[in-house]
Structures are given as C-alpha cells and as structure tokens.
Write a structure and sequence with these properties.
Strand order of the largest sheet: 1-2-3-5-4
Largest sheet: 5 strands, antiparallel
CATH superfamily of the largest domain: Transferase(Phosphotransferase) domain 1
Strand content: 5-15%
Helix content: 40-55%
Number of strands: 9
Number of helices: 9
Structural class: alpha+beta
Distance between the termini: 68 Å
C-alpha cells in the first residue's frame, strides 16, 4: 500500500525553524510558538536578551522569489515614508528574503495591538486617511511581477478548478454550474461597463490584518498585495445593511480624500469584488486541501452542507450585483 504523499511543510520542523532564524545571526532561546496562519507558516521565535521575532515561511510554489521581493519592496517603501505598516527586517547585506534548506522566509518585528473597532466613525476616518496615504504611494509606481486581481484569476479559474477536481457533490452540481455561469457572465458585463485605474494595494485589507494601537491602524501581512482599484482595500471594511455601509464608506472617504482622490465610480465595483472574493475563497480552500492543516482547521469545508450554503450565498450575491451601488451624499 502506497504511503500518502508528504506535504512540503512536513519538513518544516521546530528545529529547522530555529536553525533558519539563527542562520540570520540571531541566537534563539528555543521558544517557538506557531501563529494562526494557513497559507504560509508563521512562528513567534524567542531571541536571547531581545524581543521575539516573527518568522514567516512562504508556501512553496505560490509566489516566485521576485514576487515576494516585490511585496517586501512595497512594504519597505511604505515604512520609509513613515506609514504604519509592519515591514520585513533587512539584514546587513540588504536582503529581506532568505532561503534555508529549500524554504523562503522572512523575519518581522513583533507588533502589538488589537482588532480595530470598525463601528467607530473616528476610527474609520483615521483608517481612511491611512489608506489614502498608502494608496498615494501605491499609485506612484506599478508592480512588475505581482499579478492583478482579475475575473479570470479569482473567478473563472476558481470555478473551473472546483468543477474539474470533483469537489462539488453530484446532487448540487447542476445548481452550482448554472449559478456560477450566470455569475461569471454578470461579472464580465460589469467589467466591460466599467473602467478603473489599478494601483498597488494591500489586497487583503480586512480587520484581521489590521492591528490598532496608539489610536492608529497598523497594517500587517501584505502577502496578497497585488494590483487592483482602490475600492479593493475599502469594501472589506464595510459591514451591516446598506445604510450602515453607506455611512461607513462616507467616513472612510472623508479621510481618504485628504491624501488621495477617490474615484466615486469605483463604488460600482463593491459587489463585483465581493463576488470575486467569495468564488476565490472556495477555490483557495480546494487547492490547499492536500495540506494537512486545512482539513483540520476547516472541518466544515467540502461537506454537502457547505456547498448547499455556498450556493445559497452565491444566489444572494447574484441578486446583490443587480442592486444599485452605494450613493454618498453629494455624489452625482
């Protein structure tokens, strides 16, 4: 009987993590704590007579070395402009990305803070100001290696992967095929009817990637930094019903426009990018299902109940795509 194939992360033992960190000139106190991360492996590592460091080991074959270095370059640019971001540490040779026994990794300072209170208007105003500053720098240049968030990558490719790899239960296959076909057609029409300027953005700007301290947001985990319109970093901060989202967006943009002019036409894209995220999320889980950490952490995924609820969610999202966009006071 053939033994199950091993995942590359099986080789990332605690000793290997400590050896990797010490390869950069640090002396570990042998304390190691795995942090809540699934796409990559992230650890807090104790350092003798110094604050602990955060060691991030990138998932093999997800990003190229050049793409990771471009992520680092962007965050270091932001840090050098005194933006509140957590950037990788740079060694004496000027490198932020390192390799150890087949793993690419980076070291970060440990950052304290708590989850932002996104129902607080003052916090949203501050958040908008910070994102405006980040996007101002993000618009000053373009990525050469990082990709763009597109309908093809996040929508079409995700749906095709799920269908081609037998993730959808047979009893729900027709419903999923029909619904995603309609969704993708609707998204394509929105894409053709709207034009936008794509800039360098955080890419995964939800509350879990923001630490609040000293009355300001600190942005972490630029692993998904890509090219997209500014709205990609704004819509994920919204919650509640339409009225609540309208008020939240108004506060965000009041701060944002102090540093970067927001194109109000991008409000047409809130549900477009929300839909892409829903489609991509299921595809992402499916593509990672051979990683033992995923079945243990996401026990509810790939059950018939999950797919039934996902189809219902997508039906609701199809209806949301036909709703009028958010309209702010004074917007024409």
């Amino acid at each position: 009987m053939n033994s199950p194939a091993k995942h590359p992360y099986d080789q990332l033992t605690p000793d290997r993590v400590l050896d990797a960190v010490e390869s950069q000139g640090y002396l570990s106190d042998a304390r190691i704590l795995a942090l809540n991360s699934y796409e990559n492996r992230v650890y807090q590592v104790g350092i003798e007579d110094k604050d602990p460091l955060i060691a991030k080991f990138y998932r093999p074959e997800r990003w190229t070395r050049e793409q990771i270095e471009e992520e680092h370059q962007f965050t270091l640019e932001l840090k050098n402009m005194e933006m509140p971001v957590v950037a990788p540490l740079v060694n004496e040779a000027g490198n932020s990305l390192h390799e150890f026994e087949g793993f690419l990794f980076a070291l970060f300072p440990r950052q304290g803070g708590h989850a932002p209170e996104l129902d607080n208007p003052d916090n949203l105003l501050t958040m908008g100001r910070t994102l405006g500053r980040i996007h101002k720098l993000g618009s000053a240049a373009q990525f050469q290696n990082r990709p763009e968030i597109t309908l093809q990558r996040y929508g079409i490719d995700s749906v095709e992967y799920l269908l081609e790899n037998d993730f959808i239960p047979s009893s729900l296959m027709e419903a999923y095929q029909t619904l995603t076909r309609d969704l993708l057609h609707r998204l394509d029409r929105i894409r053709q009817q709207n034009q936008w300027q794509s800039i360098r953005v955080h890419g995964d700007c939800h509350g879990g990637n923001i630490l609040w301290r000293d009355n300001a947001p600190h942005f972490v985990d630029f692993d998904d930094t890509q090219t997209a319109p500014a709205i990609q970093d704004l819509w994920m901060l919204l919650s509640g019903d339409r009225q609540e989202q309208t008020l939240q967006m108004a506060e965000l943009l009041d701060g944002y426009n102090e540093f970067m002019d927001f194109n109000p036409a991008e409000l047409n894209l809130v549900e477009y990018f929300r839909t892409l995220r829903l489609l991509n999320y299921s595809g992402w889980l499916a593509k990672r299902w051979d990683d033992p950490a995923f079945p243990m952490a996401f026990t509810w995924f790939n059950t018939e109940r999950y797919w039934a609820e996902h189809i219902l969610e997508l039906r609701e999202q199809l209806a949301a795509l036909d709703e009028p966009p958010l309209v702010l006071f004074g917007q024409i």
